[in-house]
Amino acid sequence: MNETGAGLEGLVRAALREGAAQQEYWDQHQPELQRHYPDQFVAVLGGEVVATGKNLPELIAALEHADLDARRTWLRFVEATPRTLIL
Amino acid sequence: MIRGFFDAEARRPTPRVRAVLLLPDVGARFGSIDFQIDTGADESVLHPADALRLGLRIDDLVRAYTNWGEPSELAGIAGRTLSYHVTARYVFQPDRRPHPQQVSSRIHIAKWMPENDVLPSLLGWDVLQHFRFSMDWASCSIARYDQADPELK
User: Fold this and answer.
1) What is the three-state SS of B36-79?
2) CB B126 within 8 A of CB B44
3) B146 close to A (CB below 8 A)
4) pTM (two decimals)
5) What does the pLDDT profile of chain B (153 residues) look like in tens digits?
6) ipTM, 2 decimals?
7) Closest approach of chain B CAs to the CA of A81, in angstroms?
8) How many CB pairs under 8 A join A and B?
């Protein structure tokens, strides 16, 4: 384990900030997302839901149809039906 | 100390830690991933929803890049799945230190299947072994310390 160089640090900090912003968005909007898009994947851009899908291929198809790049969006599965994960 | 968090949406405590994942052999892709801490996993796994966020496509997760090599088989409680084991760097931002810290290791990129659409990416013992960590649901705190961490002394 070692510490990274200065160039990488900027990219890392920006990526972590982006991750924190995403988490804040999901935390704040989870109830309304569950109401409108239960058990669906959503893609968010600029604070707005821009595509949805019942699975990832469907979501990606919707993004492509809207001419949007998945990398620029925040993706999340909106869990409404409880499921038990045993990993 | 690297601070993690419990997923606020989960019905039960779901310990997560945020890391920037760099994949040098996959077009130098990188991005922030909220890994689920999995003390039952021998090795770390990148699942499709997070792989897409790094710019991979569903097709990539089915056919794989030529330099990913042959898929390897992972065994879990739900059965077996295929993955590609590639070089990875995990970068964490400690609380009270100016510089990020990184762990060089590998990660399994899970081959896409309808069944793994919704699975979180997992941080397994290949990375966890570098840290001592504590998880306390009562205080909603997760902390990970490396051996040089002054808070351990």
Assistant:
1) EECCCCCCCEECHHHHHHCCCCHHHHHHCCHHHCCCEEEEECCE
2) yes
3) yes
4) 0.89
5) 788 888 777 777 889 999 999 999 888 888 999 999 999 999 999 999 999 989 898 888 888 887 888 899 999 887 888 999 999 999 998 887 778 888 999 999 999 999 898 999 999 999 999 888 788 887 767 777 776 666 554
6) 0.85
7) 11
8) 98
